[in-house]
Amino acid sequence: MRMVDLIQKKRNGLELTAEEIRFIIEGYTKDEIPDYQISAWAMAVFFQDMTEQERADLTMAMVESGDTINLSAIEGTKVDKHSTGGVGDTTTLVLAPLVAALDVPVAKMSGRGLGHTGGTIDKLEAIAGFHVELDTEQFTELVNRNKLAVVGQSGNLTPADKKLYALRDVTATVESIPLIASSIMSKKIAAGADAIVLDVKAGAGAFMKTVEEARKLAQAMVNIGNRVGRQTMAVISDMSQPLGHAIGNALEVREAIDTLRGEGPKDLEALCLALGRQMVYLAGKAGTLEEAEELLREAIRSGSALEKFKVFVASQGGDPSIVDDPAKLPQAPYQIEVEAHADGVVSAMTADEIGRAAMLLGAGRATKEAQIDLAVGIVLNKKIGDPVKAGESLATLHASQEQVGEVAELIRAHIQIAGHAEAPPLIYDTIVE
Ligand code: URA
Ligand code: CA
């Protein structure tokens, strides 16, 4: 086989076979095919697209390019949730104990990463003593016992995706549905998921800026999952404004605890129920999605979800008393109100810019080496559709210093106030097959 022929075949709009796709991905992983040929191929895919079978084959070729996590020692159907990323997305911290309370095993591998706030592990490390250094045996034992554990990423998962994603970034081939869908799905499958629930975000703070694009990506990923034997469902949710009220590490832990108690922001709770019911259903713990949702509501009402969170925290060395006394979480020394300049209704709140403001306060990393301040962040006091009076607080900044002028201005500039406005829908669509 010659790479040049495969580039030509794709350029001409023909379908590649599984063997040809494996040749490309294996050759690239082993440095036998050069960047310039893969670049040309990626551009051909960008313009000619891929069939459903090609997308599934590409996904599995990337899974096979590196290590895969074997979770077979863990009892039950392991359902993993993936979000395409947004601002103030506290869903993982809520969902993990919530579905574990219904005996759905959550064997979560998580990272730190770059962004407006830290990753799930950074957020959990806001709890004194909490750690994720578990060996495979401890991890397995904890999930079997408690149905929930979180461990740091290890192993060389999907090296082909790492190389290809970096190359796409500099060859204008990131925005391709088949390449994005196979990239995301390969990582979930390599991490050992039996079934997958996807939260595909749409809006200013998301990778997909429109609902139409988000729906295409969601359907592409659901099709891949189902084709390769991992039942997959998706929710398409709004990211025109941040989710919930809190954006920041300790602040989001507190928000998650409130939500597990049934006292959290309504949008965060609604999205957790929409994703959670798919997880519970796919794990075989309910016969219908409606029944699954009722079980989740009961786990919140009865306190079993909150109790699960305490057990989880304590099992990984954390201080569970923060659940009843969240004031023990790291607190920023300064709390500064950003006040509205006019009367009206909040009409827009650009999620990515609010996220950038949180990062400027120190809640997230701009580079891998950057340090995170776990205490700082933003609490939104208004969301789109809320009435506001001049002088009222739009947001509270939790800051490490008193001088935050630039950040306050950034937030004020990106929260618009108009005569009237309505809250956007939270969930645009769900895809179950
Ligand atoms: N996120 C991924 O993991 N892969 C892509 O290709 C795009 C976004
Ligand atoms: Ca939030």
Q: How large is the share of residues in beta strands? A: 15-25%
State the share of residues found in helices, binned by percent. 40-55%
Distance between the termini: 36 Å
Helix count from the secondary structure assignment? 16
Please identify the structural class as seen in this structure. alpha/beta
Q: Mind describing the biggest β-sheet? A: 4 strands, mixed
Question: Would you report the number of β strands?
Answer: 13
Rg of Cα set: 22 Å
Q: What is the 3D form?
A: globular
Order of helices and strands: HHHHEHEHHEHHEHEEHHHHEEHEEEHEE
Strands across the major sheet, in which order?
Answer: 1-4-5-13
Could you report the average pLDDT, rounded to the nearest whole number? 96
List the ligand species. uracil, calcium ion
Q: What are the segments in which pLDDT stays under 50 over at least 5 consecutive residues?
A: none
Question: Could you provide a short overview of the structure?
Answer:
This protein is of the alpha/beta class. The strands form 4 sheets. It has a 4-stranded mixed β-sheet, with helices on both faces. Strands 6-9-11-7 form a 4-stranded antiparallel β-sheet.
Chart the SSEs and their pairings:
Layout (H helix, E strand, L loop, with lengths): L2 H9 L6 H12 L5 H14 L3 H12 L15 E5 L7 H10 L5 E5 L9 H5 L11 H11 L1 E5 L6 H11 L7 H14 L4 E8 L8 H17 L3 E8 L7 E3 H12 L5 H17 L6 H13 L2 H12 L18 E6 L4 E6 L1 H11 L15 E4 L6 E2 L4 E7 L5 H10 E4 L8 E5 L2
The structure holds uracil and calcium ion.
The site of calcium ion has 9 residues, from strand 6 and helix 11.
